[in-house]
Amino acid sequence: MIIRYLGARVWILVAALVAAAILVPLANLALPANHPLHVPSYLVPLIGKYVCYAMLALALDLVWGHLGILSLGHGAFFALGGYAMGMYLMRQIGARGVYGNPELPDFMVFLNWQELPWYWYGFDQFWFAALMVMVVPGLLGFVFGYFAFRSRVTGVYLSIITQAMTYALLLAFFRNDMGFGGNNGLTDFKDILGYPIQADTTRAALFAASCIALALAVLCVGAIIRSKLGDLMIAVRDAESRTRFIGWRPEYVKLFAFTLSAVMAGIAGALYVPQVGIINPGEFAPVNSIEIVVWAAVGGRGTLLGPVIGALLVNYGKSVFTGLAPEYWLFVLGGLFVVVTIFLPRGIVGTIDHGWDALKARRRAKNREKGESEGTGNDPNLAASPAE
Amino acid sequence: MIGRSALFKRPTSLAGPPDKPTDRGLAFMIRPMPWLLALLALLFGSLLSAPATAQEPATTASGDPAAIVQKFGGKQSYDETEAVISELAGTGDPAVARPLRALRDGDLYWREGDQAVFIATRDGDEYDLLDPMTGETAGTAPRGEMEKVRVKNSIRNAVTLALGSLTLRSDNPAQRLRAAQTLFSEADPEMIAPLTEAIAAEEDPAVKTAMAEARASAILASDAPEAEKAEEARILAARGDREALAMLSRFADSAQTPEARSAALSAIAQVENNIAFWNQAQNVWYGLSLGSVLLLAAIGLAITFGVMGVINMAHGEMVMLGAYTTFVVQEFIRTNVPGLFEWSLAIALPLAFLVSGLVGLVMERGLIRFLYGRPLETLLATFGVSLILQQAVRTIFGPTNREVGNPDWMSGAFEVGLMQVTWNRLWIIVFAIIVFVALLAVLNKTSLGLQMRAVTQNRRMASAMGIRTPWVDAMTFALGSGIAGIAGVALSQIDNVSPNLGQGYIIDSFMVVVFGGVGNLWGTLVGAMTLGVVNKFLEPFAGAVLGKIVVLVLIILFIQKRPRGLFAQKGRFVDA
């Protein structure tokens, strides 16, 4: 029943992710290096990175595609989750740092700090760090959303304010006396949960964890948009005032989705950091947050599958292109923004859906002509119609 | 004492010997009448030199600087040189400034044969000789014959001091003022008497005040009675700058009597108040300067956003294009017509307006008009354009900062009270105001402005009244972009011209627009200035970065109260 409820497409995606979580580590670890299906070790964290980005794009799409809130600050939640994980990893280094201080991370010793700041307490415990990965971005999203939605800041204003938020955090995290490593951020991680972070097995495990997390996120988002809440979200997106007049409270709907989205972004960031081995204030840069939007836009906003595919495609393209001609990547990215908004407003998945629907409608019309009336096709997909 | 005060009287050259080269008229008069001269000399000599000879035989020559200068001739100890310097200074004749300066610069020489003193400049194997007093050429001499008057740092200092007291009597008020200012920081008790005299003779009030301050500083440094010092402390308190504060606190530390102490302390309090006041003034000034930069950057954004409801993320790149236009214009002028460099900014202004305006027009016609009614998509598309423009500039001009020069009238600074005002900042404020007023005039006095306001207020109604809204959109966008280009010309004078120039301003400009509200230029003005001043006032407490964060947080909170900004438009079209 639950399969019917969520639609086949969600399950196909989940199955693909679970398969990837099992097969890619296997192909990396078990197959010999000269085997044609062998996945080289450098590729595992790279694809793992894309998976984290996909999760981030999914989180953004939850609020943009389904609620019409264009957040230009989702990179902030991602980075906060990453920092929470980075703090745990820093504490795991222990006395193996350059200065050999068992208590303080290297950069604090370097800055002549005598003791650990209070907000670093507890990060030597994984469970605490894992909690903070969700609580900190969630709390920021909640407080920010509470103020923003309560006073009905919408549209472009909201986008600019979210951008200002991540910009302010960028400035703040660049400061050395914030106690987050300043410009250099947190890096030189040694191990996670006792396993060496550079080892192939650990990386394979992290990759699998990322895929599973993304699969869970897809299930979660799928369940929400299938529920009555999902319908309400679409209603708020397309006619906020009308929804309010009917008697709903759009601000609560938005607040819930925004907070959930922030938590998801935080988890994505936490999985991202151990795979790339560094987190620095650059992740807060407004440009990063806007890039997330283009992933979702390329894949197709509000299509569930789209952001995931978009993030994978764009980032794969970025890797390929920066390898070939790094100076032209910005041209491509800029062009992507323009082309997608003008020629492909539904995104890849949305356009295919639209074409498919149109095809089905034509066939139905033909069938009707033949006099064979058929039950309406069970369309599992939301038609992607851009807000406003 | 008598000697000293007499030294600073301008010498009457009547008593001078006949070989003084300047007094040609006198020499002409003297030659036919040797007997009269002898008589006069006898008369004056018996009258004037009688008391002087009793004290010190050298004073007989005190009236004649030319003779004293000659004393530099011959091998001397430094002490002897210094004695000659003070003797020269004692004449009070501004003409001795020339040999003294030459001495300081190491250009004073004496001839081995007759020990005559000259200012000499080397010319190959020879020296060109100048008369030390008049500066007239006095022939040449081979290198071997000339000997330099040796100087060391203490001698140079003595010369500087002597020059300071000399110029107190100069005919040029500016020079007298400079002398007084030098003496103020020297605070040399020796100078009290000459300053007192100079003050009595001074007529220019500004110079007089400066001299009084110099005298006060000298008295505070001397061992005068504390009551007198306390009196002088008031003059320093009125001056009220940091130097005065340092002197006053030295005085307060050394004061013996409670009266002097309390006088010093009250003077210190007064000075501290004064400094605090000027600090605030400086902050306001910096704030206004930052605000005018923000205004320039944001004003174009405000009209495009106001009229079209579109946030142009490429606005910062329009500013950057303006700055690069300035760079190109200057390069062209440097290589082709260097004489026009002072005019480079004036030439760049219309060009920058055209370049950025044209790019804006192309953007509107080629891109944005397809996205009407979808503001969020427009935001994304314009962001894409901004990336492309940035990379294009980086490819063409390179990723590093390009050098844009300041014309002379843009560089330098002057002081108002204790506040430093740089010319480029001042001109940018003036320029921002001009742009603002011009734009206000366009909006309120032209038909395009009328149509723009109509579309801002109610697009459908305006369209129904026959306004071609697409055309208005295009013109608005071109105008807003062109103004951004002009802003770029101004910003090129105070900021690094690099492909990232625009990015630095874009978020701040948005903040200004969001804070000030849409559809009203006054909102942009007030928003920009408020943000600028608040930023600069927060900086001393919180540091530049934290100050900026605080401002961002404040704006986010402000938006809670007034989601449509400070100068929100009222009416039913608002919640479209």
From TrEMBL, chain A:
InterPro entries with a match to the protein in the record: ABC_transp_permease, ABC_transptr_urea_perm_UrtC, LivM-like
Residue numbers spanned by region Disordered: 364-388
Membrane-protein topology: Multi-pass membrane protein
Keyword Plastid: no
GO cellular component: plasma membrane
Keywords for this protein: Cell membrane, Membrane, Transmembrane, Transmembrane helix
Record has Mitochondrion as a keyword: no
Subcellular location: Cell membrane
Any one GO molecular-function label of the UniProt entry: branched-chain amino acid transmembrane transporter activity
Transmembrane regions listed in the UniProt entry: 42-60, 67-90, 126-149, 156-174, 204-225, 252-272, 292-316, 328-349
Name under which the protein is recorded: Amino acid/amide ABC transporter membrane protein 2, HAAT family
Organism: Fulvimarina manganoxydans
UniProtKB/TrEMBL annotation, chain B:
One GO MF term: transmembrane transporter activity
Keywords: Amino-acid transport, Cell membrane, Membrane, Transmembrane, Transmembrane helix, Transport
InterPro entries associated with the record: ABC_transp_permease (IPR001851), ABC_UrtB_bac (IPR017779), ARM-type_fold (IPR016024), BCAA_transport_permease (IPR052157)
CDD domains cross-referenced by the UniProt entry: TM_PBP1_LivH_like
Membrane topology recorded in Swiss-Prot or TrEMBL: Multi-pass membrane protein
Residue stretches spanning the membrane: 284-311, 343-363, 375-393, 426-450, 471-490, 510-534, 541-559
Any Gene Ontology biological process: amino acid transport
Main localization category: membrane
Subcellular location: Cell membrane
Gene Ontology CC terms: plasma membrane
Pfam families: BPD_transp_2 (PF02653)
Family note: Belongs to the binding-protein-dependent transport system permease family. LivHM subfamily.
Protein name: Amino acid/amide ABC transporter membrane protein 1, HAAT family
Species of the source: Fulvimarina manganoxydans
